Amino acid sequence: VVAGGWQQDTHVKPAAETSEVRGVSQVFAHPAFSQEILFDSDFALLQLDRPVPETSCIGPACLPGDDFEGVGSMCEITGWGMQQSGGDLPSILQQAVVTTVAHDRCEANYAQANRTVTNSMICAAGTSGGGVVDACQGDSGGPLVCLHRDRFVIAGVTSWGLGCGDAHYPGVYSRVTAGLDWIRDVLAGRLKSPDRGRPQVDFKGRMWAVVTGPCGIDQDGCIHSSSFPRQYQSLEKC
Protein backbone atom coordinates (compact mmCIF):
# COMPACT_ATOMS: atom_id res chain seq x y z
CA VAL A 1 0.00 0.00 0.00
CA VAL A 2 1.35 3.41 -0.99
CA ALA A 3 0.09 6.45 0.94
CA GLY A 4 0.77 9.96 -0.30
CA GLY A 5 1.74 8.81 -3.78
CA TRP A 6 0.59 10.98 -6.69
CA GLN A 7 2.35 9.29 -9.59
CA GLN A 8 2.69 5.65 -10.47
CA ASP A 9 6.47 5.40 -10.14
CA THR A 10 7.03 6.15 -6.45
CA HIS A 11 10.80 5.79 -6.89
CA VAL A 12 11.01 8.99 -8.93
CA LYS A 13 11.52 12.25 -7.05
CA PRO A 14 9.53 14.09 -5.81
CA ALA A 15 6.99 11.22 -5.59
CA ALA A 16 9.35 9.20 -3.40
CA GLU A 17 9.67 12.11 -0.99
CA THR A 18 5.91 12.35 -0.36
CA SER A 19 4.93 8.68 -0.21
CA GLU A 20 4.96 6.00 2.47
CA VAL A 21 4.96 2.31 1.52
CA ARG A 22 3.45 -0.30 3.84
CA GLY A 23 2.76 -4.01 3.68
CA VAL A 24 -0.62 -5.59 4.42
CA SER A 25 -0.85 -7.89 7.43
CA GLN A 26 -4.55 -8.80 7.18
CA VAL A 27 -7.40 -8.46 4.69
CA PHE A 28 -11.02 -8.28 5.87
CA ALA A 29 -13.56 -8.83 3.09
CA HIS A 30 -17.18 -7.97 3.85
CA PRO A 31 -19.03 -11.25 4.56
CA ALA A 32 -22.07 -10.14 2.53
CA PHE A 33 -20.09 -9.44 -0.65
CA SER A 34 -21.90 -10.96 -3.59
CA GLN A 35 -21.49 -11.14 -7.34
CA GLU A 36 -24.93 -12.70 -7.71
CA ILE A 37 -26.25 -9.20 -7.04
CA LEU A 38 -23.61 -7.23 -8.88
CA PHE A 39 -20.95 -6.24 -6.34
CA ASP A 40 -23.29 -5.94 -3.36
CA SER A 41 -21.38 -5.01 -0.16
CA ASP A 42 -18.23 -4.45 -2.22
CA PHE A 43 -15.99 -3.64 0.75
CA ALA A 44 -12.66 -4.76 2.13
CA LEU A 45 -10.47 -3.43 4.93
CA LEU A 46 -6.70 -3.74 4.90
CA GLN A 47 -4.67 -3.82 8.09
CA LEU A 48 -1.23 -2.34 7.46
CA ASP A 49 1.88 -3.85 8.96
CA ARG A 50 2.76 -0.56 10.67
CA PRO A 51 1.20 2.89 11.13
CA VAL A 52 1.36 5.66 8.53
CA PRO A 53 2.25 9.18 9.72
CA GLU A 54 0.04 12.15 8.95
CA THR A 55 1.85 14.63 6.71
CA SER A 56 1.02 17.48 4.35
CA CYS A 57 0.35 14.79 1.70
CA ILE A 58 -1.20 12.07 3.89
CA GLY A 59 -4.31 12.40 6.01
CA PRO A 60 -7.35 10.32 6.92
CA ALA A 61 -10.93 10.91 5.82
CA CYS A 62 -13.51 10.55 8.57
CA LEU A 63 -16.10 7.82 8.68
CA PRO A 64 -19.61 9.18 8.10
CA GLY A 65 -22.22 9.09 10.84
CA ASP A 66 -25.14 6.68 10.67
CA ASP A 67 -27.39 9.59 9.68
CA PHE A 68 -25.39 10.52 6.56
CA GLU A 69 -27.69 10.34 3.53
CA GLY A 70 -25.49 12.18 1.09
CA VAL A 71 -28.07 13.04 -1.59
CA GLY A 72 -26.85 16.10 -3.47
CA SER A 73 -23.53 16.19 -1.60
CA MET A 74 -20.47 17.62 -3.30
CA CYS A 75 -17.82 14.91 -3.39
CA GLU A 76 -14.39 14.21 -4.82
CA ILE A 77 -13.10 11.05 -6.46
CA THR A 78 -9.47 10.15 -7.09
CA GLY A 79 -7.73 7.37 -8.95
CA TRP A 80 -5.41 6.21 -11.70
CA GLY A 81 -8.21 4.89 -13.88
CA MET A 82 -8.83 5.54 -17.56
CA GLN A 83 -9.95 9.03 -18.50
CA GLN A 84 -12.32 7.55 -21.05
CA SER A 85 -13.58 4.02 -21.61
CA GLY A 86 -10.89 1.96 -23.31
CA GLY A 87 -8.37 4.80 -23.03
CA ASP A 88 -4.87 4.92 -21.61
CA LEU A 89 -4.04 4.84 -17.92
CA PRO A 90 -2.53 8.08 -16.58
CA SER A 91 0.72 8.12 -14.63
CA ILE A 92 -0.45 11.02 -12.43
CA LEU A 93 -3.23 10.68 -9.84
CA GLN A 94 -6.48 12.14 -11.19
CA GLN A 95 -9.09 14.03 -9.16
CA ALA A 96 -12.62 15.11 -10.05
CA VAL A 97 -15.71 16.62 -8.44
CA VAL A 98 -19.02 14.74 -8.53
CA THR A 99 -22.42 15.06 -6.85
CA THR A 100 -24.34 12.20 -5.29
CA VAL A 101 -27.51 11.17 -7.11
CA ALA A 102 -30.89 10.26 -5.58
CA HIS A 103 -31.02 6.50 -5.03
CA ASP A 104 -34.42 5.96 -6.67
CA ARG A 105 -33.31 7.77 -9.83
CA CYS A 106 -30.09 5.76 -10.08
CA GLU A 107 -31.93 2.51 -9.33
CA ALA A 108 -34.54 3.22 -12.02
CA ASN A 109 -31.94 4.09 -14.66
CA TYR A 110 -29.92 0.93 -14.08
CA ALA A 111 -33.09 -1.20 -13.99
CA GLN A 112 -33.53 -0.32 -17.67
CA ALA A 113 -30.27 -2.20 -18.28
CA ASN A 114 -31.26 -5.10 -15.97
CA ARG A 115 -28.74 -4.03 -13.32
CA THR A 116 -29.54 -3.87 -9.61
CA VAL A 117 -28.58 -0.91 -7.43
CA THR A 118 -29.03 -2.03 -3.82
CA ASN A 119 -29.28 -0.04 -0.60
CA SER A 120 -25.60 -0.78 0.04
CA MET A 121 -24.71 1.39 -2.97
CA ILE A 122 -24.57 5.13 -3.61
CA CYS A 123 -24.41 6.79 -7.03
CA ALA A 124 -22.59 9.93 -8.13
CA ALA A 125 -21.69 11.84 -11.28
CA GLY A 126 -20.57 15.31 -12.29
CA THR A 127 -20.16 17.65 -15.23
CA SER A 128 -17.22 19.66 -16.51
CA GLY A 129 -16.81 21.58 -19.74
CA GLY A 130 -20.08 20.22 -21.06
CA GLY A 131 -19.04 16.61 -20.48
CA VAL A 132 -19.86 14.02 -17.82
CA VAL A 133 -17.43 13.43 -14.95
CA ASP A 134 -17.27 9.82 -13.79
CA ALA A 135 -14.97 7.13 -12.45
CA CYS A 136 -13.71 4.62 -15.01
CA GLN A 137 -11.89 1.31 -15.37
CA GLY A 138 -8.92 1.26 -13.02
CA ASP A 139 -10.52 3.53 -10.40
CA SER A 140 -12.23 0.70 -8.48
CA GLY A 141 -11.44 0.70 -4.78
CA GLY A 142 -10.79 4.43 -4.74
CA PRO A 143 -12.55 6.85 -2.40
CA LEU A 144 -15.70 8.91 -2.79
CA VAL A 145 -15.03 11.67 -0.25
CA CYS A 146 -17.88 14.10 0.48
CA LEU A 147 -18.09 17.37 2.36
CA HIS A 148 -20.54 16.94 5.24
CA ARG A 149 -21.00 19.37 8.11
CA ASP A 150 -17.69 21.12 7.43
CA ARG A 151 -15.61 17.96 7.28
CA PHE A 152 -14.75 15.41 4.62
CA VAL A 153 -16.12 11.90 5.10
CA ILE A 154 -15.50 8.79 3.04
CA ALA A 155 -19.01 8.15 1.79
CA GLY A 156 -18.26 5.48 -0.78
CA VAL A 157 -15.78 3.17 -2.46
CA THR A 158 -15.60 3.12 -6.27
CA SER A 159 -17.27 -0.10 -7.37
CA TRP A 160 -18.92 -0.38 -10.81
CA GLY A 161 -20.94 1.22 -13.59
CA LEU A 162 -21.93 0.83 -17.23
CA GLY A 163 -19.21 2.31 -19.38
CA CYS A 164 -17.71 5.64 -18.33
CA GLY A 165 -19.14 9.12 -18.53
CA ASP A 166 -22.66 8.08 -19.55
CA ALA A 167 -25.10 10.70 -18.26
CA HIS A 168 -27.84 8.06 -17.90
CA TYR A 169 -25.69 5.74 -15.78
CA PRO A 170 -23.91 7.43 -12.87
CA GLY A 171 -20.93 5.78 -11.22
CA VAL A 172 -21.89 3.29 -8.51
CA TYR A 173 -20.01 3.22 -5.21
CA SER A 174 -20.23 0.98 -2.17
CA ARG A 175 -22.11 2.95 0.50
CA VAL A 176 -19.91 3.19 3.60
CA THR A 177 -22.84 3.79 5.96
CA ALA A 178 -24.19 0.36 4.93
CA GLY A 179 -21.01 -1.23 6.30
CA LEU A 180 -20.46 0.90 9.40
CA ASP A 181 -21.37 -1.79 11.94
CA TRP A 182 -19.01 -4.25 10.26
CA ILE A 183 -16.24 -1.63 10.04
CA ARG A 184 -16.60 -0.85 13.74
CA ASP A 185 -16.48 -4.55 14.62
CA VAL A 186 -13.26 -4.99 12.64
CA LEU A 187 -11.64 -1.90 14.17
CA ALA A 188 -12.61 -3.05 17.67
CA GLY A 189 -11.02 -6.45 17.08
CA ARG A 190 -14.31 -8.32 17.35
CA LEU A 191 -13.84 -9.95 13.94
CA LYS A 192 -10.90 -11.95 12.70
CA SER A 193 -9.68 -12.11 9.13
CA PRO A 194 -10.54 -15.49 7.59
CA ASP A 195 -7.42 -17.52 6.89
CA ARG A 196 -7.97 -18.48 3.29
CA GLY A 197 -4.33 -19.22 2.68
CA ARG A 198 -2.30 -18.13 -0.30
CA PRO A 199 -2.18 -20.33 -3.38
CA GLN A 200 1.25 -21.69 -4.21
CA VAL A 201 2.07 -20.41 -7.69
CA ASP A 202 5.18 -21.34 -9.65
CA PHE A 203 6.16 -18.15 -11.49
CA LYS A 204 9.14 -19.91 -13.15
CA GLY A 205 11.24 -16.80 -12.76
CA ARG A 206 8.71 -14.58 -14.54
CA MET A 207 6.74 -11.60 -13.28
CA TRP A 208 3.37 -13.13 -14.23
CA ALA A 209 1.74 -16.54 -14.12
CA VAL A 210 -1.57 -17.85 -15.48
CA VAL A 211 -3.32 -19.58 -12.58
CA THR A 212 -6.66 -20.41 -14.21
CA GLY A 213 -8.65 -19.72 -17.36
CA PRO A 214 -7.96 -20.09 -21.09
CA CYS A 215 -5.18 -17.49 -21.30
CA GLY A 216 -1.70 -18.68 -22.22
CA ILE A 217 1.81 -17.44 -21.53
CA ASP A 218 4.73 -17.63 -23.95
CA GLN A 219 8.44 -18.21 -23.35
CA ASP A 220 9.00 -14.45 -23.04
CA GLY A 221 6.48 -14.20 -20.21
CA CYS A 222 3.81 -12.44 -22.28
CA ILE A 223 0.20 -13.41 -21.54
CA HIS A 224 -2.07 -14.02 -24.52
CA SER A 225 -5.85 -14.18 -24.61
CA SER A 226 -7.85 -16.23 -27.07
CA SER A 227 -10.14 -13.20 -27.45
CA PHE A 228 -7.38 -10.74 -28.45
CA PRO A 229 -7.65 -8.18 -30.02
CA ARG A 230 -11.34 -7.90 -29.18
CA GLN A 231 -12.04 -5.54 -26.26
CA TYR A 232 -13.31 -7.14 -23.08
CA GLN A 233 -16.68 -6.03 -21.75
CA SER A 234 -17.48 -5.25 -18.11
CA LEU A 235 -17.37 -8.35 -15.86
CA GLU A 236 -16.24 -10.57 -18.74
CA LYS A 237 -13.75 -13.21 -17.67
CA CYS A 238 -10.54 -14.02 -19.51
Describe this structure in words.
By secondary structure, this protein is mainly beta. The chain has a single domain, classed as Thrombin, subunit H (Beta Barrel), CATH 2.40.10.10. Helices cover 9% and strands 27% of the residues. The chain is built from three helices and 13 strands, in the order βαβββββαβββββαββ. The chain has a six-stranded antiparallel β-barrel. Strands 1-2 form a two-stranded antiparallel sheet. It has a two-stranded antiparallel ribbon with strand order 3-4. One of its GO terms (cellular component) is extracellular space. It comes from Symbiodinium necroappetens. GO terms for molecular function: serine-type endopeptidase activity.
